[in-house]
Specification:
Elements (H helix, E strand, L loop, with lengths): L2 E6 L7 H15 L5 E6 L7 H4 L6 E4 L16 H6 L2 E6 L2 H5 L4 H13 L3 E6 L9 H13 L5 H4 L3 E4 L15 H18 L2 H6 L1 E5 L7 H6 L4 E4 L6 H11 L1
Parallel strand pairs: 1-2, 1-8, 2-3, 3-4, 4-5, 5-6, 6-7, 7-8
Bound molecules: 2-phosphoglycolic acid (PGA).
The site of 2-phosphoglycolic acid (PGA) has 12 residues, from strand 8.
Length: 249
C-alpha cells in the first residue's frame, strides 16, 4: 500500500494568491513521487482552489468539519459543502483543536458523520507529555476508545490514525520522537485496536506519524513502520516538502 503524506497547512498562508502558488507547487512535487498518496489540507477559504486549479494528482482534505449534516450552526462547515469542493478526507482530533475544547465525545460524533458521508477520516491522537510511569499510555488508550465508540469493525478499517505526540509538534516542541519510540507506540496502538476489535482489524489500520517531520527525520519514521506522515510547517514550503518526499520514496 502507498504511504500517505498529509500536508496540514493549519491557518496558513494568508492570501488566496499564496495558497494558489503553494498548491500548484505541491502538485508539481508529486509528479516525481508517483508511489506516494498525498493529501493537502488547506484552510476552508482555499478549498475551492482544488477544482479551480484542476488538481488531479493529489487529494483534498479539510482540517475540521461539523458533527451535524446541516442547520443553524454558526461558523460551522458541513461535510456536503466540503465534498462539493472535492474534499475526500478530514483531519479530526488534532491536538490544536483539542486545545480549543474538542473532546473525544465530539470527535467521535464527527468521525461517525464523516464515515457516513464516505470521507476518509484522519484521526489524530497523542499524549501531551511523557511520564516515567507510563500514564501517557493510558491517556492514548482513552483517546482511541473514546473516539472509536460505536464504530463498527468494517467502518474502522476506513480510518487512518495519525499519532502525533503533542510535545513534538510545532515551534514549541520540547523534544523529538525517535524511531524506537514510534515502533513502541505503533505496537501499543495496534494492541488497543485489537482489544476493541480483533488483531486482523488492528493489522489493517494505517498509522501515520506527525510532529516536526522534516527531510532529515522523515525516513526514520518510515523505516520504523509509519504508514505515512502528517506534516505541518514543512508542508508550507514546496522545496522542503519535495525534499521529504524524495527521502522516503
Ligand atoms: P509540525 O505540525 O510538522 O509543524 O510539527 C504537525 C501537526 O501539528 O500536524
Amino acid at each position: 500500500m502507498n504511504k500517505v503524506i498529509i500536508a496540514n497547512w493549519k491557518m496558513n498562508p494568508q492570501t488566496v494568491k499564496e495558497a494558489e502558488v503553494l498548491f500548484s507547487k505541491l502538485s508539481n512535487e508529486k509528479k516525481n513521487n508517483k508511489k506516494l498518496d498525498i493529501i493537502v489540507c488547506p484552510p476552508f477559504p482555499f478549498l475551492f482552489l482544488y477544482k479551480k486549479l484542476k488538481i488531479k494528482n493529489i487529494n483534498l482534505g479539510i482540517q475540521n468539519i461539523s458533527k451535524d449534516p446541516s442547520g443553524s450552526f454558526t461558523g460551522e462547515v458541513s461535510l456536503k459543502m466540503a465534498t462539493d469542493l472535492g474534499v475526500s478526507s478530514v483531519i479530526l482530533g488534532h491536538s490544536e483543536r483539542r486545545e480549543m475544547g474538542e473532546n473525544n465525545i465530539l470527535i467521535n460524533k464527527k468521525l461517525i458523520n464523516a464515515l457516513k458521508y464516505k470521507l476518509l477520516p484522519i484521526l489524530c491522537i497523542g499524549e501531551i507529555n511523557r511520564d516515567n510511569d507510563g500514564l501517557y499510555l493510558a491517556f492514548i488508550e482513552k483517546q482511541i476508545k473514546g473516539c472509536l465508540l460505536n464504530i463498527s469493525k468494517s467502518q474502522v478499517k476506513n480510518i487512518i490514525i495519525a499519532y502525533e505526540p503533542v510535545w513534538a509538534i510545532g515551534v514549541n516542541a520540547i523534544g523529538q520522537m525517535n524511531g524506537e519510540q514510534f515502533v513502541e507506540m505503533k505496537i501499543f496502538i495496534k494492541k488497543v485496536i485489537s482489544d476493541i476489535y480483533d488483531s486482523k482489524t488492528a493489522h489493517s489500520i494505517r498509522i501515520l506519524y506527525g510532529g516536526s517531520v522534516n527531510s532529515s527525520n522523515a525516513s526514520v519514521y518510515i523505516k520504523s513502520g509509519a504508514d505515512g506522515l502528517l506534516i505541518g510547517r514543512d508542508s508550507l514550503n514546496a522545496q522542503k516538502f519535495g525534499l521529504i518526499l524524495n527521502t522516503i520514496k
